[in-house]
Design brief:
single chain, alpha/beta, seven-stranded mixed sheet, 7 strands
């Protein structure tokens, strides 16, 4: 994964590369949780981080593309919320263990070993009772959905994600359909892996 390529993509796009709205599965998974400290890994332009901040979360957003972080900082300012932004590669970034009530990983696609390392540091970052939410393009999307990476080696499955979350209670682990607009004005389905897990309370 090349940070310079992603940085160039963000820098060369006049508007947002992604939607300003939060991911639907993030909203489903987080809305009922009481606000606390949240960590958004591979935050991109910050659509989920900013949404969390608007709901009272104290958010740290991490991404390796400086242009994305700068765009997120500007968007947060426009919407009147505070987010702590950090430029860092999440495959090397190590949050302080036991520091967060929520860790979010949204559409981060990595080779298996790198993904396992990120999941391990994410689960360790949770406080007792904290929640980890992972959303990404599912392997089944290659043949049954639309969009997303076309490399099966970096696509997710619920089983692969759950395998990296030893010691957590799995609340949800499934392949879910997400409608996206089609060229003819209708919608087509993308297939996403959605996993929600919690660290047992002390």
């Amino acid at each position: 994964m090349d940070s310079s390529a992603w940085d160039a993509r963000y820098a060369s796009t006049s508007g947002l590369v992604w939607s300003a709205e939060p991911n639907r599965f993030v909203v489903e998974s987080v809305t009922a949780l009481p606000p606390g400290a949240a960590l958004d890994l591979a935050a991109g332009e910050g659509r989920n981080a900013i949404w969390l901040a608007e709901r009272g979360w104290r958010v740290t957003a991490v991404d390796f593309a400086p242009a994305a972080v700068e765009r997120g900082r500007d968007l947060a300012g426009q919407r009147g919320v505070t987010v702590e932004w950090r430029v860092a590669d999440v495959t090397a970034y190590r949050p302080v263990p036991g520091s967060y009530d929520l860790v979010l990983i949204s559409y981060l696609h990595l080779p298996a070993a790198d993904l396992a390392a990120v999941l391990d540091s994410a689960r360790r970052a949770l406080r007792p009772g904290g929640a980890l939410v992972v959303v990404g393009h599912d392997l089944a999307n290659l043949t049954g959905g639309t969009g997303g990476p076309q490399d099966p080696k970096i696509l997710l499955t619920p089983e692969t994600v759950v395998d990296g979350l030893a010691g957590l209670h799995i609340q949800r682990a499934e392949t879910a359909r997400r409608p996206v607009p089609s060229a003819d004005g209708g919608t087509v389905d993308a297939l996403d892996t959605v996993v929600v897990a919690t660290r047992p309370a002390a």
